[in-house]
Amino acid sequence: MEKAFKSLILLLICLSFITGCKNAAKQGDANEMVLYSALAAKVRGLDPGDIGDTTSSVVASQIFECLYQYHYLKRPYELIPQLAAQMPIASEDGLTYTIKIKKGICFSDDPCFKDGKGRQLVAGDIVYAWKRIANIKYLSKNWWIFDSRIVGLDEFREYTKTCKKAIDVDYSYPVGGLQTPDDFTLVIKLKKPWPQIVYLLAHLPTAPIAKEAVDYYSKDIINHPVGTGPYKLKIWNRGSYIELVKNPDFHDEFYPSQAASGDVQLGLLSDAEKKLPLVDRILLMNIQESPPRWFLFLQGKIDLSAIPKDNFESTIDQRGGLTEDMKKRDIHLGIFRDPSTYWIGFNMEDPVLGGNKPLRMAISCAVDKAKFIELFTNNRAEIAYGFIPPVMKSYSSAVKDISPVRYDVNRARELVEEAEKIYGGKIPKLVFTLPGTDVVVRQYGEFYSRCFKEAGLDIEMEYMDWPTFQDKVKTKSAQIFSLGWIADIPDSENFLQLFYSKNVSPGTNNFNYSNPEFDKIYEQISVMPDSPERTKLYRKAEQIVVEDCPAVFLYHGVAYVLYHDWLHNYKPHGFGYGLSKYRRIDVKKRAAYKDLLKNIK
Amino acid sequence: MINYVIRRLLYTIPIVFGVLLITFVLFNVVGGDVTDQIAGKAASKETRDEIRAEYGWDKPLIFALDSQFVNHIKNAVTFNFGRSWSDRERIVDKIKRGAGPSLSLTIPMFIGTVLISISLALVVAFLRGTVFDIIVVLLCVAGMSIPFLSFILFGQYFFAFKWSLFPVFFWPDLSPLQYVALPVIIGIAAGLGSNLRFYRTVMLDEFRNDYVRTAFAKGLSTHKVLFKHVLKNAMIPIITQVVMAIPFLFLGSLLLERFFGIPGLGYLMIEAIASRDFQVINAMTYIGAILFVVFNIITDICYSLVDPRIRLE
Fold this sequence. Notes:
The structure holds two protein chains of two kinds. By secondary structure, chain A is α+β, with helices and mostly antiparallel strands. In chain A, 30% of the residues lie in helices and 17% in strands. Chain A contains 19 helices and 20 strands. In chain A, strands 11, 12, 13, 14, 15, 16, 17 and 18 form an eight-stranded mixed sheet that branches. Chain B contains 14 helices and no strands.
């Protein structure tokens, strides 16, 4: 017995010796610049045409490039050419866009090409990528980008319906609205003006893809990304980690030399004019649980991290700055506004809620947004009064005065009485559907339940997994639901379309909201180029929605990101994805972190 | 015995068919439609119809030659599970890739738990009624009362993060021995309570038998009585417990794999459940059912090997 116990202890000591923390030293060669980062969700695929989730976009955007990209440092967000040689030339009627493409840009080397050598990018690759999204047999999630936009592309989609399989589709089938007069010119003809097209040309799904790669890898193209970007996929151990390495044939692109005010002081221009990418290798670890992610960040194994809810108080002090412990570790804090809005949505086709504005207003008055933000976001949010987030150019703080509701329980009770007169009796029990079944979501439910009850309303909370929730909302079966939206592009039209009557469920208008006055303005502004007049109309449209109260607009997200001292050129960005190329790592500082940790201990 | 095995194998056909029927009803009838999730935001009706056609969800449910149920059976029999709808990867590839990491975690965990708990159970049963026995029983009850997640969080925080004795998480540079060590220890510690209590009860039942007293009366050493007689006679419940646990080793450990980044089948199952990837869940359930049935037969065969009184007829 004693012998066995001793053996066990010996085994434990041996194991801990073998597995000890010396592993940190193995993180890379001494001078190699490696960026270590964590992915909090699964990467679903690396085929840009079919990408529909943020995590996959973050990875694929290091490998693929679009015609345009956002300037890394300038604010408000500004588009600059990436694969395009210049900004697009739009015709006077806004129906034709001519785009010149840079010469000499090559796809990365891959066995799919002749002799394994990546060939030069041509305009036809962009046309192919877009036709591929239009191919209904390909089942792309991104057809919404081009739906009823480009001359002839909808007809191409109709043609693909006649094909049996995706591979039967003949991509030489002509599309009048996508022309390539020469290899480096793309002419796009639109059915009606679409000023937001330039933003979509910076959206990953519109990135060019080589037909050779799609033909060579067939359905496994999701595992074999072949792009023109700064990095190449080296290893993808699914569900575990992704390793990207510098693309040796990456075209000339340089770190920006212009910046927003304050960026110089933050050292964001110290690498100005340097050739990109700066980092040699990127290791993206799939860490879905927050405790190990947080531990690895504090151990210096990953370079940047969000702050888990449970660790917020030990990280951020009462003045909103970093705590002493974080400062001792030379950790920096980046705070930025998300282009997001979260709300409690009302189904406007519901017989109880739809025709009863006082009831919707009563609910709006009953919800204590400030308390919600304090309880559930650690104050990492701003109270919302409308749906346009403050990060958008068309945001106006005046929306606060326009909004007819404030947190006021007495007013909520008065409004409930008014609502009951309209309904013709006591308001029946309302059903509030929440996405998720975990403890935090149930805490949301408890909070909302209390707010409703204080206003004198009966409420039943329903908790369900995301797919079931989505199904319920899309089939107009949810009465009250909790949702939000993060903008794809820095144009408020992206939010406005959520209230357009032609987009009702299963479209993006989950409120099933319909107001002819709003529709009229939306139809007008959706074809207008950016101008002060359009901004005014955006605000007018928002005012109409806010007054109709199809939702309780809760909050706009504010993101807190922590990063280690050795990570340079970190600037949060609301829309850009392929940003790792700008980062730089101070290898010596990282190596010294182990000593720093010892001193802290 | 061969006849018995053949007969038992034939019995597995209706059992597996039953499992397939239940999984079909659960995932294809009760589970609901996942088309919207595949289609992404703002998908048109025609896109959703196309997706249904691609995955065969537009076909009749049961009563047709080419029905969803017939295809479900056909795919199961040929082990052609198709592609996961959430990432379009072949399910067979997912399972092949996940089996290694899962087994590298669950096999040492299983062997460790069985060896330690049986050895300790023998000792504790021998020392029954003593302070040592009482302390072990109390520790077992405490271990059984603590949630598995608490073991993980505690172990990861202290042993990996605070004291840096083990890596916090899987890392590409590490060998399997390194990143699996702590989860294995945690798994053993968490499983020890229930296993030890079970084996202690089994051993105590044996100790009460006359042959044990006879053996001691004949002057046999404690070691010989414990390991040659008591252990051998306690083999039937031990075999039941041990062999029937083996199929579950293939399914991995859901929580340990997720918290320690081990890309095994447990991790795969959690992701599939979270994204309602029914094809993956269905494939895993089917494989689990087959393994369970096969190991049931192996258990019966083992009975006859360890106890000559048992005949397979």
